[in-house]
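Residues pack. One example:


***
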Amino acid sequence: MGAAGVARLHGLFATYKPPGLHWKHLRDTVELQLLKGLNAGKPPAPEQRVRFLLGPVEGSEDKELTLTATSVPTLTNHPLVRGPAFTSLKIGVGHRLDAQASGVLVLGVGQGRSLLTDMYNAHLTKDYTVRGLLGKATDDFREDGRLVEKTTYDHVTREKLDRILAVIQGSHQKALVTYSNLDLQTQEAYEMAVKGLIRPMNKSPMLITGIRCLHFVPPEFLLEVQCMHETQKQLRRLVHEIGLELKTTAVCSHVRRTRDGFFTLEDALLRTQWDLHSIQDAIQVAAPRVAAELEKNLRLGPGTQQLHGPGWHGDNERPSPALESWTAGG
């Protein structure tokens, strides 16, 4: 395998992080499997060197000794002498997931680590499915956290939930315009807003560009959230705050990332696929798309961002001005 195998590892690929696994452990496991694959290849034939060996003269009865030129292998580079050829790899982790969350986690190998920086600078949106449970509150907004309060939720309807989600989306889209430093009075800004292209200039609080309810069977509900600059704890807190707006309480039972920029669940390698050949193939397949998407998004420059990513089917209904009291920080 050698240098040729390493050359095919420069780039980005996506893994599926299961819940309960820390991202550092995932990265270390991937590195271990890659090193195992790189070192498993058949070592090259050892170099030959000429040595003069002392031996009897052929056909001599007097047991005379002579020096004979002989080609012998050089063992200084043999794996048993030198050890494994590859002992470490430089692997970077993109937008991280905490231990309890699951879903798409992007890794960069070698020169691919610089592409992770480009992904950060492009301010790409990410998609999540977030499952909530009505009727209780905990100290950390998680279902298995320390119980703080129990409440009734019989009054909560799908219509009330959808109305709250519309408020959230509307207020966050206003905040997105604010952080993009765009003057909506200009023709350029207006055209970008019409096309749904807008993004913050720099780092900002969590911004939600789309949110909708996929499933509602009390006490459970499932949300699809498209956002940027988020943490999984902020998404759990969002579920808690939605519960408060509904005059009840709610906890988050699951957070799963389904898309990170231009990587989706379909691209993510399962744990059984964290091997050298699968990762090499994934990097090579993704490379043209990575280059094209990064060039497109970085060329757009500050102030632009695709509001809805691939596969997003949420509506663009704007809430009434009376409902736009929800703030991005709330």
Q: What stands out?
A: The CA atoms of residues 179 and 202 lie 8 Å apart. The helical segments are 2-7, 23-39, 79-82, 113-121, 158-179, 187-195, 232-245, 276-300.
